[in-house]
Amino acid sequence: xxxxxxxxxxxxxxxxxxxxxxxxxxxxxxxxxxxxxxxxxxxxxxxxxxxxxxxxxxxxxxxxxxxxxxxxxxxxxxxxxxxxxxxxxxxxxxxxxxxxxxxxxxxxxxxxxxxxxxxxxxxxxxxxxxxxxxxxxxxxxxxxxxxxxxxxxxxxxxxxxxxxxxxxxxxxxxxxxxxxxxxxxxxxxxxxxxxxxxxxxxxxxxxxxxxxxxxxxxxxxxxxxxxxxxxxxxxxxxxxxxxxxxxxxxxxxxxxxxxxxxxxxxxxxxxxxxxxxxxxxxxxxxxxxxxxxxxxxxxxxxxxxxxxxxxxxxxxxxxxxxxxxxxxxxxxxxxxxxxxxxxxxxxxxxxxxxxxxxxxxxxxxx
Length: 366
Fold this sequence. Notes:
Distance between the termini: 47 Å
Shape: globular
Strand order of the largest sheet: 1-3-2
Number of strands: 3
Largest sheet: 3 strands, antiparallel
Number of helices: 15
Structural class: mainly alpha
Radius of gyration: 25 Å
Low-confidence stretches: 131-141, 155-164, 241-255
């Protein structure tokens, strides 16, 4: 590419004529919006059948793509915040990835840019994953955020057009790198993220065995493998609609499962687990908690009075100690699976989760 600006000149004039100028690239106090030729950033456009290949003047070389990403993440984002700029940055980073892919650039600059974009997507999933975090002072959701679409962009497979997913593309970049090329300093980190994003996939685990020893044995990848082993154990004993109509085979099969989900949440809260790893693991909390509640439901006898809600909250990884548990949040989670919560009856034990007084665990909820 020969375009040395963040946005090609033709596109800048075209979008101004079509009144397609974003808030973050307009000249202030202009109506209709006039485009700021310094702040404008190339917009993502879907490829269509029959379209000609882009002109060199429409493609930005790697150095300009890196400069554009620096502007988005180091200037625009910290100045105006994630909620306000998310939709714009998501679209423009997608355009950056497209320019790299079209030019078949897989060098160190491309890898660095894709790594930074992947971190942005992981963080966005965490920040906006809860409804209260997706909203500001009003009840309107953060403009442009679609949780399912964000997860798709982060985790979708190579089969999708142009392979724009940053994590999948990164793994391909690492795999295609010549043996003579210097190793990427962050490869172990993103191999770990990829494994956590596809934590129930056996194929993602198999491809790790061919990695060099210094990557496979790195602490962050070993931590990801530990989480993957917990997830596999939980999946093997997860409830299903066909087998859990009633309480059968109680404590014997449930106690080992309790150990796995307890270890899972303790490992998440361990300071050794990085912040972005925890952000990715958060996506799997619902499934782990589902297995955890099912294990508790099976383990307690029908004569048990119930479990203090604070203890259940700790077991579900919702607080480090019973004193810090948000009781309403725990109650909302267990009620999702048909489990009743008994209000404080003044006996000094507070609210109880009645794991033993339901006839059927609602395993279809997630």
